[in-house]
Amino acid sequence: MSLTAEESEHILPADQSLGDVTDQLARIPLDFPTRGRWLIALALSSLLLLLFFVAVTVLFTRGVGVWGLNIPVNWAFAIHNYVWWLGIGHAGTLISALLLLMGREWRNSLNRFAETMTLFAVVCAGIYPILHLGRPWYVYWMFPYPATMQVWPQFRSPLEWDIWAVLTYLTVSVMFWYVGLVPDLAAARDRARPRGWRTFFGVLSLGWRGSAVHWLRWQQAYRLLAAIAVPLVVSVHSEVSLLFASSQIPGWHSTIFPPYFVLGAAFSGFAVVAMIAIAIRALFHLRNLVTDDHLDILGKVLLGTGLMTAYGYVFEVFDALYSGNAHDLQTLQDRLFGSYAWTYWGAIIFNFVFLQALWWRGARRTPWSLFLISLSVVVGMWLERYMILVTSLYRDFLISSWGSYTPTFWDWATYFGTIGLFMVPFLLVIRVFPVISIFETKEILHEEQAEPSHA
Amino acid sequence: MPEPRPYGVLAEFKEPEGLLEAARRARAEGYRDLDAFTPFPVEGLADILRLNDRRVLWLGLIGGCTGFAIALAMQLFTNFDYPINVGGRPLYPLSAFAVVAFELTVLFAAAFTAIGMLALNRLPRLSYPVFAAARFYLASKDRFFLCIKADDPRFDRSETPRFLQALGAESVELVAE
Amino acid sequence: MRADWTARRGEGLRILTGDVTSPTLMRQLDRLRTELPGARVHVFEPVGRAQRDAAMRLAFGRDVDAHYRLENCEVLVAIDDDVLGVGPHQVAHGRAWAQRHGELNPRQGRMTMHVAESVPSLTGAVASRRLSCDASRLAVLAQALAAELGVSAAPADVPNESERRWVSAAAADLRAHGGHSLLAIGANLPAPVQTPAPLVNDRLGNGGATVWYSDPIGLRPAEGSSLADLAHDIAAGAVDTLVVIDCNPVYAAPRDFAFAELLPQVRERIHLGLYRDETARACRWHLPLAHALESWSDGRAVDGSACIIQPLVAPLYSSRTAHQLLAMLLGTVDPAAEGPVRQTWANAFGGDFDARWRQSLHQGFVADTAAQPISVMPRGVDIPSSRPRDAQEVDIVFRPDPSVWDGRFANVAWLQELPKPLTKLTWDNAIAVSPKMAEQMRLANGDMIEAAVGDRRVSGPAWIMPGQAPNTVVLSLGYGRTAAGTIADGLGYSAYAVREEANPWFAAGRLRRVAGSQLLATTQMHHRLEGFDFVREVSADHPSLPQEAQPQPSLYSAWPYRGEAWAMVIDLDLCIGCNACISACTAENNVAVVGKEQVAMGREMQWLRVDRYQSGDVDDPRFYFQPVPCMHCEKAPCEMGCPVHATVHSPDGINQMVYNRCIGTRTCSSYCPYKVRRFNWFDYRAPADSSIHAAHNPDVTVRSRGVMEKCTYCTQRIQAARVAADKENRRIRADEVVTACQQACPTTAIVFGDLNDPESAVLKRRKSGRHYVLLEELGTRPRTTYLARWNDEPEKEPT
User: Fold this and answer.
1) A402: domain range?
2) ipTM of the assembly?
3) B41, A216: Cβ pair inside 8 Å?
4) What is the pTM of this model?
């Protein structure tokens, strides 16, 4: 990836003042521009959210048997979508934190909604392990508290690691998002006229006043959080991969899993970031801030992470062939030619074949083509996670226990429901909070204007 | 009615460069109790104002160590308190404890950093004298403010505004406590 | 009513019952016939032994029962005789066979088994040499074998190459082991076809050694007392009152006399039975019969020993035993349940009644009542040559269902959910076809086909049965019930619809495909071994497996087990796949029944499964059985996956499942390489007021929704033994703890005990050269391990 050529050029059009940007962005919550389209999106998302609540009610009333699970496939949609959602979430943190540390300032136009996406993706992910429990009302048993039976959680279990990892990730993501948001809340407070909005932003901005010493500490804290968040992302998805890699099940028991999962996560996440970027820039007319150059870079990142994920596919096959283990070879054969081969080849097509269009500059810079390719990646990664889960479990060691899995209506209902669970709060947040970081955009704008010679 | 005690004088600048220049001149003039209010962090300002506070970073480090210690202690203790054979694994498998130890290190480091930053900044504090300034709302938009506080020994109710005016400020305003 | 009968001296009174061995019932029926000479007793048993009885009469000129002594048998040649299969003899035969077969058992040595059969059976599955032979060819085979051994003329029909090879090998082996060999010919084959067996056994000197004869055990119906005779009399208007005792002719009668239409012609119809079944609904009166567990009764075991049946519980409902009913027919008003039985034995025991009665109840059988060998001489019988088969016709064979038998157990959910040994089907019967026929007709499992015999037809889902003879089609009895109860109604098809009185076990018929297909619920979806070594084999050339000097290395030091170290060793050479272990486990451990849809989804709950594999040629595969309970791995992958300590190890090495701690993450099951864990997907508990609770073992928790469960090595029995040992201040004795599966196993394939006890049977088995660990390469160190199976013909194995 050669971002250097891009980086030396200006990513934002120079003909806008700091004031214009402030007004343009801070006005979005105050004087919402696309009320109609937003309401339609909210209504549709609310329907999905309603579906989620119905599905969860049915699930809790009757038991996890309403899903298509069985022995051997006793983990499927819930865990698969958990991994998928969490993976999507990771891109937000990576864009925000990693690129901040690397000084890639083009991220300033993207980080706010990418982080917001992270938050709700993590919520969607985090709810799944609870839903999938046989007795979800006892989820608190996973925490160490002095129980009357004197039993503690079992810290050798990847699931136990998981709950700490996800909760840490959620908390750190919230803190990172909020710390970054405070100065913008102050800007919104100062623009807001109605008393309600003033109070709302006033309280949330904590009385931020942009003092030099505050900025100093803020910068230290923000960079430190970013420095913490990057290894956290890597650790969280590596840890998620250990849910599988810690077992001995062929197709799971592999050392390639942690990096393979992290890269896949970033890949799917960047795809969603690209989709949201394209949607938001169209919805709020922000072409001047989310420029074609941004799309171009996102396209390149997508291509890069996609190729790394493809490397994972190649290595997985190599791993099985090289080990020569009969069970691993069996699983490989099941993946390539078994009953669920469509998930394998689907993943290859959606994650690799369509992706190749991104070698062309035009495809990267055209919103609809980038959107479609990103959508294909999201679908592809969904299929990949399905493939990893189901094709490993449905035929493990003993032939006698080979089974099959078909998702039921309630599997699908819960899954589509989580899309509502993601969209509704996301839409509400972009309604009331600045969708793009105002002060960071001004910072980069100012820097670019200060050194016009590069252009 | 006695005149209220002043908080300081605010000077408005259009460009960060103007603010930096004014800050430099103010320090040269001997003013020490300075502050600035900007819409985004301005590079070099902290140096000029001689701000050098690294406590946030230290807090992060302390938080990380605390989290690590808590995680390790928690995992060791629970297995000490209720020792039981789990899959023939050792009672104290440090490799298995590494994940939670790492996560809690991160969690505490992040929490100490974020909360420590707010605490050191004495935030939240919703009301602050500068908010009363007429043009202060522009500090979060595109104006850069330098403030010489009344606590400064060289502060003078009439002299200091004049000094700031001379530095090319767009506006100068005396802010009450 | 009684006055009416007495007046007419019983004329017009008929009693219909199934097979009777109860001395009390026989005594009562005798008395009834004495008091009411006009009354007649008819016997109808859908899976009866009429053909065998006829064969014995042909061979010996009188009624005789044949008994096998498999423990003395070095060579067994069975023609369509499933000696180890379902039926009253299974347990006795299984135990005797295992006594002969097991290398650690007293009578060491192997039994060479030559089995020729049209339908794969449990006996065929463990045979040394199995010939798959169409049902219509079995007579030829029997005759050819008899001719080879010089007791009969050569058959008119010439055996083909593979038949001839099997016959000469079997004959050579039989002859070489004269006096220790046995020829068994299936009891369901036409009577003349069975007659070579006594002759051959007599000629080889096997009489008294591997087979002996006794007077018939139980009631031998007199001439003219079959169901057909009853039907004839009803049609003739000679029957005024019919008392049906626990028998279901409306459902199970052969269709050539339409019993269901005839029955309403009887004026007074009384049915005594456990269920208000098809016959009960056609009767005017249905009298609830007390269950055997609530009854005083008696009966005879297969060796003739009389057993007195005593009630386990007081009757749950207001019901009467058959003896009470007959006592009432004989004039006693409200007889006590115990009375008729005591009276029978009072006559037999004489003066010493109290002591002998108490002793018999204590022992469970009456001493010295076993049948005595009698000396009889068989004679030669001509075997009529069978009618040549029409090229369009197929051999239709009827078989009792391995789980629900002739249909009487159809409403027992435990049995419905018990996977049938060779197909692993549950909740259904299918029409089994051979792989060749399936290929010709382009059938897949579940496709609907129709079997027609004459103008009667029945349709059901196809099941492709590897090893079934090419032109043979199997219809299983016991399904297609319409009034069995909520569990069985509507399951499967009724094979009785095409069954004929004259030849109830065989018919020449036609098969055609009909539209549609049906979901079949199996517990094992894939049957081929695919070259994996889950079931290992030894042979004469390689009598022991390569033994690893060291177990798989582990990063973690071994956890010490200072007290007991429980372990189980399962001898695959002894397993006949009979399902006794699964049934015992289900009953012992309150395992839930989940129903057909759930089984089809892969959610059966049985803690123990018997894996069944096939390898080699689909037309003549080798079958394997492998019981798989929890392996109780010392390095259990499941335990390390559980986040809440719900599955942990006990100090005596049991992989424990703590139900009330389980939150249902199912990680343990995902991580289990053996997939032995079962999950409560829904609340499978019976409603609070259900009578099912009475069937539960009070020592075992009933699991609620959302928790995992699995084999516990019958931990409640271990605890009971520990309490007993503690009370007496001693250690638990070697082999004192017996698990439910072990207890039920007729062939002693399962052995359980303490590895730290040098006397224990498990330790002895673990030292065997045939010992191996399932999936040893995973390093899980299972406590449940296996002994390899013996392969008599390793050269037949594909490499």
Assistant:
1) 4-450
2) 0.93
3) yes
4) 0.90
